[in-house]
Amino acid sequence: MAMRIIARMAEICGADSLMDITGAHIDSALFQGDATLEFAERLAGLGAKVVVPTTLNVSGVDEHGWREWATPPEWAAKARRQMTAYQSMGAIPTWTCAPYQTEWKPNFGQQIAWGESNAICFANSVIGARTERYPDLMDICAAVTGRVPAVGLHLTENRAGQILMRLVDVPRRAQEDDEFYPVLGSLIGKIAQDRIPVVEGIEIVPAEDQLKALCAAAAASGAVALIHIIGVTPEALSLESAFQKKSPRQTVVITMESLRAARRELTTAAGEKLDLVVLGSPHFSLAEFKKLAPLLEGKRRHHDVQFLVTSSRLMTELADKAGCLAPLKQFGGKVTVDTCILTTPMLRQEINTLMTNSAKYAYYSPGLLNAQVVFGSLEDCVRSAIAGKVVRDESLWRE
Amino acid sequence: MERVIEGRALVDGEVEAEALVADEPLSFWGGYDQRTGEIIDRRHPLSGQVAAARVLALPASRGSSTTTAVLLEAVRSGKAPAAIVTVAVDYFFSLASIVAGEMYGKPIPIVAVAPEDFATLRTGQRIRICRDGALIVRTGAVL
């Protein structure tokens, strides 16, 4: 069945041939309903085994922690069955949407078949590994067969930039700020849609988590699978290399004005009211836990505002060892692992307004959770949780 | 009036239904309610419309790779569009439909058309999808 699906997809993609992959990341383990479960159990029942090292994206439930939340037991049971099915096929239970921050991170040039839009964008852009945008249900077929259609971003000639985005008068101070990257990413995705953007004008070397936020945002607001950033990403040493000596079909100027508009669009809530602060899409890293902990030290969240970090078991364990979880607990915050608020029904109906520093959460929460959302920096999120209402520092964005 | 648009059947099938058209791509994950067929991306022009049993015309899918899983679920629950027409050769919609065929014997037609043809499609038109990928569009029923 897996090979049949891959072969039909190769036909649709117009591939001349199939090619080998040496790694996979599976988004399909996410319980979406009976159909995804039936598909998983069909494959597992047929005796499917992955033939390349294969990591698992978020699942549909925090396997051991779901009882603390509003997750219905019936949902949890089915989501756990789906987790079991994928593990029985030999996939590694990483349960994270940031597999590039684990020991199974791919290498430059490595041919892989990854699912999860943010991870695809990060692997292609920041690492220079090569993956198409593998949808759920196809990623596992690639992992089981070890083969994919030889098309798209697997091939050098298809990795050339297509649209130039030039930052003009975007001060270094803004570029150094964590809040800048999800906003820039949202704007990039919106403009680029499914084209390959080349970003010129980043003057600093952004941190890994800043690039993570940028990729996640661009892959949510557009179908962006590869972003070249001149002087930052490995296939973009120069404009010439990023465009593979071709000229851009279109050039767009990005200014603080356009960034301000993109930032405004990430917020849908009008008032100051707040029910939940949520961090960690993609999953919070150790570095992010380390940044968060001192902000929480000796403080306590407002009793009306819940405070949640979504992360992987591995990062949470490391954060605990590094002493970052104790301040979070004293603050009144919680951690959920394996999954996130968008992929498991863990939040109560009363959660109407949430605040986040993640463009991906901001982008998907209104549709998936029917919630209003406020986008802000990490510091804004913490201060708001303490104040019990939305507080945002606008100084970076003032005209 | 009837006119014929040549398309490429990515996943073939025959169906006739009313069109629901937008010129913005849509992520089904966070954008399509698999239990009702409603478009729930509140930033999308079709927000609030029900696409179940209609010919949904979008330039492409967008964003999340879970779009395929949502479409498969919608097929299982009987709330999928009758067919999807795109401009791009959309791998996500095609894959979901192929798997729907494997699992439930119910693939939905996925057809790619040229951008200039796509631009002529309007919500409310009746569209017949033919097995070879041609679209028969009925417009301005009675004047």
Structure report:
The complex is a heterodimer of chains A (399) and B (143). Chain A has 399 residues and is α/β, with parallel strands linked by helices. Chain A has three domains: 155 residues, Aconitase, domain 3, CATH 3.30.499; 106 residues, no CATH class; 112 residues, Aconitase, domain 3, CATH 3.30.499. Chain A contains 15 helices and 14 strands. In chain A, the strands form four sheets. A five-stranded parallel beta sheet of chain A has the order 12-11-10-13-14, sandwiched between helices. Chain A has a four-stranded parallel beta sheet with strand order 8-7-6-9. In chain A, strand 10, helix 11 and strand 11 form a beta-alpha-beta unit. Chain A is globular. The mean pLDDT of chain A is 97. The model of chain B has no long low-confidence stretch (mean pLDDT 94). Chain B has a single domain, classed as Phosphohistidine domain (Glucose Oxidase, domain 1). In chain B, strand 5, helix 2 and strand 6 form a beta-alpha-beta unit. Chain B has an eight-stranded mixed beta sheet with strand order 1-8-7-3-4-5-6-2. The longest helix of chain B has 14 residues. Chain B is built from three helices and eight strands. Chain B is an alpha/beta fold and 143 residues long. In chain B, helix 1 packs parallel to helix 2. In chain B, 52% of the residues are buried. At the A-B interface, helix 1, helix 2, helix 8 and helix 14 of A face helix 1 and helix 2 of B.
Q: Give the end-to-end Cα distance of chain B, rounded to a whole number of Å.
A: 10 Å
* Global morphology of chain B: globular
Major sheet: arrangement of strands of chain B: 1-8-7-3-4-5-6-2
User: How do the strands of the widest beta sheet of chain A line up side by side?
Assistant: 12-11-10-13-14
Largest interface: A-B, 48 and 40 residues
CATH class label of chain B: Alpha Beta
- Give start-end ranges of low-pLDDT stretches of chain A: none
Number of domains of chain A: 3
Largest sheet of chain A: 5 strands, parallel
User: How many domains is the backbone of chain B divided into?
Assistant: 1
Radius of gyration of chain A: 21 Å
Please identify the structural class of chain B as seen in this structure. alpha/beta
Strand coverage percent of chain B: 15-25%
Superfamily (CATH H level) name of chain B: Phosphohistidine domain
Q: Helical content of chain A, roughly? A: 25-40%
Number of helices of chain B: 3
Q: Which H/E pattern describes the elements of chain A?
A: HEEHEHEHHEEHHEHEHEHEHEHHEEHEH
CATH architecture of chain B: 3-Layer(bba) Sandwich
